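Thread title: Can someone regenerate the structure for this chain?

I was given the following input by a collaborator and told the matching structure tokens would be attached. They weren't. Posting the sequence so someone can regenerate them.
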Amino acid sequence: MGSYSNILKRRTIRRFQLKPVSFTILKKCVNAARLSPTARNTQPLQFVAVNDAKQVAAVNEAVHFGGVVKQKGRKEGEAPKAFIVILVDRGKKSEYTLTDVGIAAEAIVLTAFEADIGSCIMGAIERERIKGILGIPNSFEVPLVVALGYPKEKPVLEKETKDLFYWLDDKGTLHVPKLSLERVLHRNRF
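Best answer:
Regenerated them for you:
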């Protein structure tokens, strides 16, 4: 399957199976992120791959899944089974660093998707708490965390709705509305 096809199929996953995620897969995800472009090739990013059950549980307490998951609550055993914490070296930080972080996060989730691993890019996180849990020095910032695991849900893509909020139906299926291509694509001029 090609990159475009994977991008069209991949959805954010917030409910995960009990099956653990191997360090081999996490290492492959980080390798893809590390080889992703960075502005001026400054390579300001480092990564902490977490798949030890106790560490995963501790990090899970410091991240906040929102929306429908927060409203309905996650059932026992549906938490992520791994995390990749994206770090920014403060000494290499520039005005382009957040772009670098986004590119790396996308490399992680697409690499994970190829291995049948679901993911959720998370910015609603307790940064200082995560740094303490993982022993991250103060010379690094924690802009994003990627939650990973084998999916226990299969979100459905929907046509746009008035408010664009995703929702759960009576069967527990997550529905995710997206703006149409026609609404967001402008040819040659706005």
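The chain has a mean pLDDT of 93.
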